[in-house]
Amino acid sequence: MNEETVEEFRKKHFENYQNAVMETLKNNTTVLFEDDIYSLLQKPPLDSMDIIKCKFLDLAKRHKIIIRSDVLDQVLEDYRSSIISYLPSWKKIRIDELSKIITSFAPKKESDVIKFNKKDFTPLNRKLKKKMKEDIAKVVDKKVVKCVNQLFTPDVDKNIKNDISSEMVKFVQTNYIKQLLESIDFKIIVKDTTLINGVREQGERFLFTKMNSYLLNEDKISE
To answer: Which of 128, 164, 177, 220 falls 20 to 30 Å from 98 in CA-CA distance?
Structure first.
């Protein structure tokens, strides 16, 4: 086998490796956003698990009034669908940033492989979390805060309305967003670790084939 053919095989092997790492990144990110984070944003299977709804109902009960549950359900449905619509853009940020490590990789030694280190995720996650916080806060204000007064029946005292509205707005703008972002952060940390390990496995597979294949290893070819 001539040198040109061997070099073609090596080039193809390297391209396949890069593509495999890219696929690992895309699959990992898809699961992170479309499964893990989506599960935090979709309607909970039980009403008792719905933090916002429970807070509203608790406030209404405390003030001895009844709120329009049908309107509340619609408000929450609109809120959730709006938040979920941001998932593709958040997903794109992660893939775009991390794919730069893959496409810019140029091995200097035979044993060099693509690696994702914890420090690689620091600037990405800072950027991603800032964007997510801004988007969530914007949707909370637009879809929940602005709709609070629609939940009351006409007979509810104005002062009670103001008290409930004030407390509810404070809750969704502070504690709720903080809790949600903390839950998202945990999901991201887990997937970052999974991705580091997955890329490491792809590198081990790449080197093993490279060192043991008769088509890719000069020492094997000369045997």
So the answer is: 177
The average pLDDT across 169-175 equals 94
Q: Residue 90: how many CB atoms within 10 A of its CB? A: 18
Is the CB of residue 186 less than 8 Å from the CB of residue 32? no
CB neighbours of residue 83 within 10 Å: 22
What pLDDT is stored for residue 212 in this prediction?
Answer: 75
pLDDT for residue 183: 96
Give residues with Cβ within 8 angstroms of 1, minimum separation 6: 215, 221
Q: Does the pLDDT of residue 222 top 50, yes or no? A: no
7: tokens are 């070099």
* Coil vs helix vs strand at 181: helix
Non-local (6+) Cβ contacts of 145 within 8 A are: 169, 172, 173
DSSP 82-138: HHHTTHHHHHHHHHHHHHHHHHT---SSTT------HHHHHHHHHHHHHHHHHHHHH
**CB burial class (10 A; 0-12, 13-18, 19+) of residue 117?**
exposed
Instruction: Give percent helix, percent strand, percent coil of the chain, each to the nearest 5.
Output: 80, 0, 20
pTM over 0.85: yes
- C-alpha to C-alpha distances, 107 to 9, 52, 78, 212, 216, nearest whole angstrom: 16, 51, 49, 19, 16
- Residue 216: C-alpha distances to residues 3, 9, 16, 160, 206 (Å): 10, 7, 13, 77, 11
